[in-house]
Amino acid sequence: xxxxxxxxxxxxxxFVDDYTLPEGTLHAAVFDSTVAHGKIKRLDIDKxxxxxxxxxxxxxxxxxxxxxxxxxxxxxxxxAGDEVHFTGEPIAIIVAETPEIARAAKxxxxxxxxxxxxxxxxxxxxxxxxxxxxxxxxxxxDVDSVWNGCDVxxxxxVEIGGQEHLYLETQGAIAIPVEGGGIKIxxxxxxxxxxxRVAARILNFPMNKIEVDVLRLGGAxxxxxxxxxxxxxxxxxxxxxxxxxxxxxxxxxxDLRMTGKRHPYSADYKIGLTSAGKILAYEATFYQNAGxxxxxxxxxxxxxxxxATNSYYxxxxxxxxxxxxxxxxxxxxxxxxxxxxxxxVIEAAIHKAARKLNIPAYEIQKKNLIQDGDKFYYGQQVxxxxxxxxxxxxxxxxxxxEMEEEIRKFNSANHYIKKGIALMPVCFGIxxxxxxxxxxxxxxxxxxxGSVGVSTxxxxxxxxxxxxxxxxVANTFSIDISRVKMETTNTxxxxxxxxxxxxxxxxxxxxxxxxxxxxxxxxxxKSAAGELKVDNPDLIEIxxxxxFYNGKITRxxxxxxxxxxxxxxxxxSSHAYYATPxxxxxxxxxxxxxxxxxxxxxxxxxxxxxxxxxRYEIESVNVIHDFGESIDTKVDLGQAEGxxxxxxxxxxxxxxxxxxxxxxLSNSLSTYKVPDIYSIPEKMNxxxxxxxxxxxxxxNSKAIGEPPFMYGIAAYFSIVNAxxxxxxxxxxEISAPITPEKVLLNLHQQVxxxxxxx
Length: 758
Ligand code: LUZ
Ligand code: MOS
Hints:
Blueprint: H1 5-10, E1 26-32, E2 38-44, H2 46-50, E3 54-58, E4 83-84, E5 90-96, H3 99-106, E6 110-115, H4 122-127, E7 136-140, E8 152-160, E9 172-177, E10 183-187, H5 192-203, E11 210-214, H6 229-242, E12 246-249, H7 252-258, E13 265-273, E14 279-291, H8 297-306, E15 316-325, H9 339-357, H10 361-367, H11 387-397, H12 400-413, E16 417-430, E17 439-446, E18 452-456, H13 465-477, E19 484-486, E20 489-490, H14 505-532, E21 540-543, E22 546-549, E23 552-557, H15 558-567, E24 573-579, E25 584-586, E26 591-593, E27 597-610, E28 616-625, H16 633-651, E29 683-688, H17 713-726, H18 740-748
Parallel strand pairs: 1-12, 10-11, 14-15, 18-19, 28-29
Antiparallel strand pairs: 1-5, 2-4, 2-6, 3-5, 7-15, 8-13, 9-10, 9-12, 11-20, 13-14, 16-27, 17-18, 17-24, 21-22, 22-23, 25-26, 27-28
Helix pairs in contact: 5-6, 8-9, 9-10, 13-14, 14-15
The structure holds pteridine-2,4(1H,3H)-dione (LUZ) and dioxothiomolybdenum(VI) ion.
């Protein structure tokens, strides 16, 4: 079970907003742009400065260092200079005695814009040459030479919506002045080093004058991989100016308005198959709606290209990604990191091909699953593929033929309510696709009473990474887990951290923690041999806190051994480093072996659609998932369930709406619907694939954070399949998400208002 569960239930877990504030803490609020694109003609802060209780109003002119927070591409300001590029773009920071005063004083700032043309659509941006970076193509074989030899060639266009992260804890940070002009930042970030690096750049400090500390996050989902930085740095800027602690926490509406989301995509595909359903060629072009600045968009787009054929081996592939600059808040990392969008498009192509060939989509899916001996089109050899095992086990364990028979019976007995079913195999690559990020370190201390403190780069954000690391440390020493405490993530204890992201937190940091623990364990064994006056430390073993020699129990206990080791002046601390071996990717040819391994699984999802009202229910979710050897089955199951529900939400009810002026209309929880406890599928059968080992994961485990998200894609197609039972050829081209409104309109209108044309 997650270390934090009991504390959460009791309300004892602390977040940024719960931090006991130092005396004299001031509060900051952000003044942001009301237009999506424009020149700032006049900015007058005087009346806001005069507001009682206001201590400062800071603009780009107050930045002592470089006004640049871009991570991959330097194209993003902390505070707008002469121009704004999206609604919600930060322009000024108001620092006041209370958050209420700071927010009230925002209205006293006077600003005039000269409005410029606004682009919200990625294809329009592409046509106008508004790109974040040049297009990128991944390819293998030669699609163009194959189309003529295919029995069926289909083309299509797919529209995919974005998604709001909706972490429970909004963005925020506290900056505290420390001796010597340095600043300590308490931040709700997945990437403490990004906060440290950017704060140093903005303030023109060396990085060693900034300390970032993270206790835990109330959710993140990628939304705090890059986009937690700005708020933390704003607080630091205010602290630097005023020499006072400053707290900056966005309220929900500010967070919804100012932060980026999952990238919407528009895509074209072409697929060629034999009449038996073997896919011979696949071509796709992805127009990514990046928003106004790069943020992580190019990396997200690259992962789309890595996952463009999902779980399938296709001998001829050409996937092109175009990151399009629009006037929306910068879209960013979100669970799956572009992978889900890539996979959705090939699934749309397969489902369309299945209708054309008049066979179930799963026949095509099954025929094309990737196997050992195949090669991914980006060059990596396929090893230990569990694609077929997961697929076949799902079909037999959940008895697909029987499920289909039940659905047939139901559908022939019911005219207005129809059921549908769809399968979704998933293959997701584990490792940051930017190879250099695949590194981590850990600092383990054994205290003289036998208790253990562990620091790593991992951020606990509800995903249970702390529980997993505690478990592997306790298992390495063979001591009770209650002796092991996870410390905060802090840049002075663990430097140069990679973000906790890419599902890799437990792998990278767990492996580092194991190495550190083993270093100490070796010393303890030597120490025990000395204490027991035996010659061979290799025959010393610690089992359940008891010390054995050559299989026989000795008089030493864990606590005694630790004390004696300290007394004999042997270090009980270790810092260790881990870097994933063997991975690389060459961007000049887009070939390499970027992933340590892949995670596989297959979902079967059933849904029921009320074809008079457009309402639907996801009835059952049935999954065989490859967890490797799970470190903590409850944590893993929780991640799988949460990911699936979030994936279903993305493609069903979560609909972001902007107007043509680039203003977010779904800007509150009354206008943006997320899955609630009542919309959780009635049946969630998630089973562990048996006999799966993984030498790259701690104790043979596999990463879990992102892969299950994409099972949600089956929910979309199960709804489409149910709609087709009511009215043939409906639903196929509905833009995602497939909201109840769209279902209703599509079933009952001649003109498909929301549908995309072919
Ligand atoms: N973040 C990142 C990620 O920086 N690189 C990645 O490859 C990635 N993949 C998934 C989620 N976050
Ligand atoms: Mo991420 S999408 O922060 O793993």
